[in-house]
Every structure is written in structure tokens, then in C-alpha cells.
Task: inverse folding
């Protein structure tokens, strides 16, 4: 019997209940065991504040700190005070991990059923707690310092490779390197922000011809998981794999919107650029490593014949518990569906446990050349696709590059190249204006409370296109 | 006779002289016509301040503002005050361009020969002016919000393409798209910062073999010009070419250090990542568009047969004056050369006027999909190489990938694949520990004062390599 190197954190004990009744719903995403960090607009004080979500409520952490609930010492100018009175999670990410864990424990104590009452506590329960429907959520980071996007699903890489390089789908480096590239940080937006359809260059119709400039015709989503980073490292000092997870503030859902036609024409030889930089959507709740601790799983089981990771990307803890068992779904609702009062339809369901590389491996690789990672940086996993057809995390894969604009059209009914049928009779090979994409993610376990990520939503808005 | 659409700015009049005598040296980089923005540590106040360089002096702009020299209204809490009392140039970059131009004019008036005297002015001339040798320069931006690296020299792209894709050196998109990719912002450092040799994965010796992890063996520099951005655009709103230059705060020299062996193995299919993210060095002086106004030149003259740029990348002003006629040099001094008191040797000399795409085209393209550019963002040009052998802006090109570690060695005396000979008898195919690379840049014109960029320096430090 091996000892679990990463036992569930005590704050995830399933016995804990909250006086916020909606937190005790077993089907809910946000029990008192979750307590994800977020940022919301406190309408009473007219300012953006650090919060946690519990049940259908948001709790203003700055106000709790002010009332002395979160910090025994009640420092007015310490790092905890600064982090909680900031307009986003950047300073929280810069705290030592132990301080965040201590805060989490005190938040949980305040929110727990049977917590000490008294008039002051009762008043605070009213004043610092908001219904989520009545306030606006903000992005976890006002400005993400750096954004890196990986490519860690071997299923996704193989699918995409098969379409564009049929003879050579998976490149020789894939199973040795957690492939990644720098993404655009400025265009990261929070769930609910409309995504304007980009314009850009389209490849010439024939070789040697002239490209055209116009609206993207092959707009896609990509289902990803992101990690906001904490701590960081000095330039020139790598982060060993064993310490990589100390640099994770928490996880979010990421929609890496992609303009496939722009990408195909621009990406050689230096990688995706404008095909991605028009928008990347993140979910507002940063789910902590502590909340996720019951849902750790082994790293990807490499099939026989696959190479072992190089030593700097290998250790037993990573192999045994480097993964996160998160169920992930993509849902779609067209404008017509919403007009007719229909809910979204599910396009896919997959699991984050199927990634070829773990987040810890991505982090250790990223810093292996001495690159300095900063608190608040976002590292996304790349599209999460599983081996099954309905576990493909992008429309490109679901319709197998079913380009309806190609001559002849690439949509071939009866094959993989089939458009997605919506209940209105509409069909999709790629996204249409007005389409809303909704990502969902959660963890379940027979003996623990469900931990959810909430939703990552975005509606495609028509662009104001110049020619 | 056509009218020059971009006449030299009045602040570049060659008749202007400064009471700082070293500014009047005709061979100097920093006459009163230049006045580049910078950040330095004021040792008296023990803080980082916004400054300008003139002659061999640095002027503390915060102090001048405090004394009422720069702002007639002398607002204590206005945007100019905030920008000048900030610890870097970020807030200055967020000002409307007209405010920066007004500041420049007032700085020039204060520094001009014959400027109003009086006891107060005399005291300020002492207190706010520092010898550049006695203070430390800081990076223009403490934290660059976003960094984008282009690939705008057709000579560089053709050289590199010939080495790695001999049958297909220049890809079909090159003459239509200003190719670029997102770089790593966190590892941008200022001139003088040592650059630690990175470790990383090296390709397997034979196909299907196992890669190794270890110190980079093929470390290179890349000579580039960068633009720090001002203003910016809203997400979803492109910047038309005609307005692109309003978004330039000023230009710097950039050394885009490159680990060629890491790059070769990692860069497919998503572009360079760890091969670049260990360090990027910028020069400390941000040379303004006004100072550079006498040195505008036409865009690259596309040879017959090359396609015209698409309409969003074309206008007469760009064609006639979109370029900058900046002479650029790379110099190298090994540790042994420095020990023996030898100065650096020149490796190359080229000109920024030979770029296939102008900075305005890069900017307009970057924002053409609605990507939001932010004040303080850095856009680099890509390696500046000319058509002549001695105008190649990287060692890779100078020694034609003269990989001494290849089997058989790729150094072939008598061909392009010749190592660089140093006066100590040392030879270089790529950079050795202790090597110092110095980039220099300046503009000259018969009827205007020389405008220089100063130097962009970096010494290669041995890495502390794990295996």
C-alpha cells in the first residue's frame, strides 16, 4: 500500500456545512468545501473587491478582513490586508501559499454552520454577503501579466495534426516536450464578455494567388483549463518539478477562441498570432488546489512504446497524483435557440485527466530555461480532447474541419465531416454570430462534495468590418 | 514636387544648442534635439524617476515638474504629474501624444542655451541634473504589459529559411503578412543585465532517439529595433494604418537572445517558446518619433513581381515616409578581450530602412483583428539583416549556422560557414560565456544633428545547470 503523497486537504471534509443554505445542495458547484477566489463589484461601496463564492452568494473578503474576521493580528498594512483590499487577485497570488491557506480556513470558519454568532457576526453576514445575481463579476486579474497556452492533449494534437499534416500528424517532439507558446495577455476577458468576430487575412484561393482580408469565416472555440500562478521565480532560476504546484493559485475554465482560417494562413513559421489574440475568455472563479485535493489522479498513462519523460519532467508524485479529474463540457445556444426559449445543447464532454502532460510538468518546463513566471500569470492547458468523438474540445475536431466554404464543401454527411445539428434545424460547422458557447467543469467523488468551476460563457458578436 | 507628409519636427532644428556642453558634440548620440525618455535611480531621493538624456547628463523630470518648469498649470494631481512622478514610463505612454510633445518642448526650453536664468533655475540645473556615470539606469517599463516580436526583414527570413527549409526558404505568406508572434514580456531586461545561458531540450542525435536536457550550445543574439507603444485601442477596434504611428512612444534597440538548438527542437508547430523567453534586452533610452522625424524614409522598395500590400496595409504616407533610416551595428567583446584591455570588435552593420514591413504596418496588422494594444507594450521588428554579408543581424546568419557541435562539424573554412575570428585568436560560431554583445544605433543626415540610441549591452553568464 502506497501512501497518497497528496492527501485531501482538511477543508474538504464532506461533513462541513454552511449557514448559507444553498451551499449545502449536493448538486451545487460551490459548497463550503470549494470557496473559489473571485472579484466582484460591491454595489454598496461602488468598488471591485476580492471575494469567494459559496452557494449562490459572494462574500466580500475585504469587509471580513476589515472586521477582523480573517486575520488574528488584524494588521492594517500587512500583505494580507493589501491583498484583500486590492481590486483583483494579483496581490493574493503574490502571498506565500500558507497565508492563502490560512485565509481559506478562516473564511470557512466564518461561513460554517454553527459558527460563533453574536450581533456583530449577524450584521457582517448581512453586509458582506451578496446574491450572485445582483452583482457583476470581474476578471480574476485586471491585467494578466503573461499568458502561455500549451498543447497538452495528445488527442487534440493528433486530431489537428491529421487534418493539416496527414502524413505526419504528431511531430517528433510532442512526447518529449510540453509544447506551448506565448499567448496574448491583453485580450483575456471574463465570462460574459461578448467576443467580436475578428477580421483578418485569408489564404489565396490558389497557390501564388492574392490573399483577401475580411471577417473570419471559421470561428471556433477551444475548451481548456487554465492555472493562474502564484509565487513565481527569479529570472535565471528554474522551478523544479517537485515545487511546481506551489506556484498554482487555482484553476479556471478557458475558452481559447480561434479563427481557423486566419490561423491556417498566418501560423508558419512562428506560430498562432492574430488567430487567437482577439479574445480569450476565462471563468470568474479561481478554484484552489486545496478544494481540488480530493480529485487528484495519476498522470496520463503513456502507452507502451511511448518515451518516458526526461528527468526534469518526472517524479513519483507527479506520476501518481499529478492529474486533476475534472469533467469538462461544452454547450452551445444559437441566437434563435435563445429567442425561442431553448436551453443550450451539449456538444462534448471530456476529462482533464486525459491530458498527456500535467500542469506541474508544464510549469517546470516553462521555467526550465530560467524564464521568470509571475504571480497572476495564466497558463492554459491547450484544448482538452479525449479519445472518443464526443470528447473533442473544439468544433474543428467535432466537424473534422468541416469547412462549408471550401470548394467542394468539406461537409460530407455520413462521415466525421458532418455539421452539428441544433434543435432549431440550424446546422453548424463553425460558430455563427449570436452563438453562445458555455464551458462547464466540475469534480465528483463518491465520498467528497462536488466541486465546480461554474461557467465560462461568451456570445459571438458581429464585427464592424472594414474591407 | 510632392510635399513631405511628415516634415521634421521643430524641436529638431539643428541651430538649437544646450548649456549642457556635451550635448553640443556633433558626434554625440544625445544632442538637445534627441531628449529620449528614460528611467534612472535618483540617488539623492533614493527613488526611480522619469528622465531624459542630454549629452552625458540625465535630467530628473519629476523634479522639473515639481519646480513648475514643465507644466504651466502646475497641476499637482493631473495626468502629467502622475506620469512624471511614476517609477517608469508606463503612465507617460498613456498620455495623449500632444501632452508628451508639449513636455518635450518645455524640457528643451529648460535645457536650451540662453534659457532664462535666475537663482531658482541655477539651483534646478544643479539639483535635477546627474552625470550618467554616477547613476543607474532602469528599464523603461518596470513590467512590459505585452511583447510582440515580428519577422520583418526579408533578408533575415530568407537567410534563416534557406538553412532550415532549403527547398522552401520564404513561405508563401511572407510578402502578404507582417509575420509576428507573441514574445515573453516578463523576461525583458534593461541593457547591462547579465544574461544567464539557458538550459533546455536538444534534439535527439538521430531520428526517433531520445532528446537530452542541458545547457544551450548555440546561443545567439538578434539585432532588432523595438517600439514602445503609447495610447492603444479598445478590444475589438482595429487601428487604421494612417493612425498607427500615433501609438508609438518611441524606439529602442532590442537584443532578442536566441537559443538556436532549443528553438530547432521545440518550435514546431506553435513557434519559438523557451528558445527566446530566458531574456530579451532593451536599451534604456526611448527615442521619440519627434527626434526621429528628420530621418524618415520610404518603405521598402518591393522588387518587381512582389505583391502589393493589401489595402489595410497600404497608404501613400507609409510608402513615402513609413521607414526610419537608422544605422545599426553589433559589436562583440569576449571576456579575454576585456581582460586584455581590448575594445569590442564590430560584427555587422545594417540599416533599419531595409525592413520589408514598416512599424506602422506591423501595428496596423497587429490590431487588425481587434487585438487591444496597450500603452507600454513592446513591438520588436525581428532581426534586422541587410542583403550584404556584413549586414546580417545574427550570428546564425554570419556563420551560416556554423554549428561546431554537428557531426561532421558545420564550420567549413573558406565558405560562408566560417567562424568569426576575434583579435585574441579566439573563434566564435555562437556565443561563449563571458561574451559581451553590444548593439548600437544612430541616425545621421547632412543638415540635422545626429540622433543616437546609445547602447544595448549584455554579458553571457554561465548557467547553474541541473541535469
Result:
Amino acid at each position: 500500500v502506497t501512501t497518497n503523497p497528496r492527501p485531501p486537504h482538511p477543508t474538504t471534509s464532506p461533513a462541513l456545512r454552511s449557514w448559507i443554505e444553498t451551499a449545502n445542495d449536493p448538486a451545487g458547484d460551490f459548497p463550503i468545501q470549494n470557496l473559489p477566489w473571485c472579484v466582484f463589484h460591491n454595489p454598496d461601496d461602488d468598488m471591485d473587491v476580492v471575494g469567494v463564492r459559496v452557494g449562490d452568494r459572494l462574500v466580500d473578503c475585504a469587509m471580513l478582513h476589515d472586521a477582523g474576521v480573517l486575520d488574528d493580528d488584524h494588521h492594517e498594512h500587512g500583505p494580507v490586508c493589501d491583498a484583500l483590499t486590492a481590486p483583483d487577485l494579483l496581490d493574493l497570488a503574490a502571498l506565500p501559499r500558507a497565508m492563502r491557506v490560512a485565509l481559506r480556513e478562516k473564511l470557512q470558519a466564518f461561513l460554517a454552520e454553527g459558527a460563533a454568532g453574536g450581533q456583530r457576526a449577524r450584521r457582517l453576514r448581512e453586509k458582506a454577503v451578496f446574491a450572485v445575481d445582483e452583482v457583476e463579476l470581474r476578471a480574476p486579474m485586471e491585467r494578466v501579466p503573461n499568458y502561455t497556452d500549451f498543447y497538452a492533449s495528445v488527442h487534440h494534437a493528433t486530431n489537428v495534426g491529421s487534418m493539416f499534416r496527414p502524413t505526419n500528424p504528431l511531430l517528433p517532439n510532442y512526447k518529449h516536450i510540453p509544447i506551448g507558446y506565448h499567448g496574448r495577455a491583453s485580450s483575456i476577458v471574463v465570462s460574459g464578455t461578448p467576443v467580436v468576430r475578428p477580421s483578418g487575412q485569408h489564404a489565396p484561393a490558389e497557390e501564388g494567388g492574392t490573399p483577401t482580408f475580411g471577417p473570419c469565416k471559421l470561428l471556433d472555440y477551444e475548451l481548456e483549463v487554465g492555472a493562474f500562478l502564484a509565487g513565481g521565480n527569479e529570472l535565471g532560476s528554474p522551478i523544479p518539478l517537485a515545487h511546481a504546484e506551489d506556484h498554482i493559485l487555482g484553476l479556471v475554465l478557458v475558452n481559447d477562441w480561434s479563427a481557423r482560417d486566419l490561423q491556417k494562413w498566418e501560423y508558419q513559421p512562428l506560430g498562432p498570432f492574430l488567430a487567437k489574440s482577439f479574445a480569450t475568455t476565462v471563468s470568474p472563479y479561481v478554484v484552489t488546489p486545496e478544494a481540488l485535493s480530493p480529485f487528484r489522479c495519476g498522470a496520463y498513462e503513456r502507452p507502451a512504446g511511448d518515451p518516458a519523460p526526461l528527468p526534469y519532467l518526472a517524479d513519483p508524485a507527479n506520476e501518481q497524483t499529478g492529474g486533476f479529474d475534472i469533467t469538462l463540457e461544452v454547450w452551445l445556444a444559437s441566437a434563435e435557440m435563445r429567442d425561442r426559449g431553448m436551453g443550450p445543447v451539449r456538444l462534448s464532454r471530456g476529462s482533464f485527466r486525459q491530458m498527456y502532460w500535467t500542469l506541474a510538468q508544464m510549469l517546470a518546463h516553462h521555467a526550465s530555461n530560467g524564464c521568470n513566471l509571475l504571480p497572476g500569470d495564466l497558463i492554459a492547458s491547450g484544448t482538452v480532447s479525449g479519445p472518443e468523438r464526443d470528447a473533442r474540445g473544439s468544433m474543428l475536431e467535432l466537424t473534422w474541419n468541416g469547412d462549408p466554404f471550401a470548394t467542394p464543401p468539406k461537409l460530407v454527411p455520413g462521415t466525421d465531416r458532418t455539421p452539428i445539428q441544433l434543435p432549431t434545424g440550424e446546422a453548424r460547422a463553425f460558430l455563427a454570430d449570436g452563438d453562445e458557447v458555455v464551458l462547464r467543469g466540475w469534480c465528483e467523488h463518491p465520498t467528497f462534495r462536488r466541486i465546480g468551476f461554474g461557467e465560462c460563457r461568451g456570445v459571438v458578436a458581429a464585427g464592424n468590418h472594414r474591407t
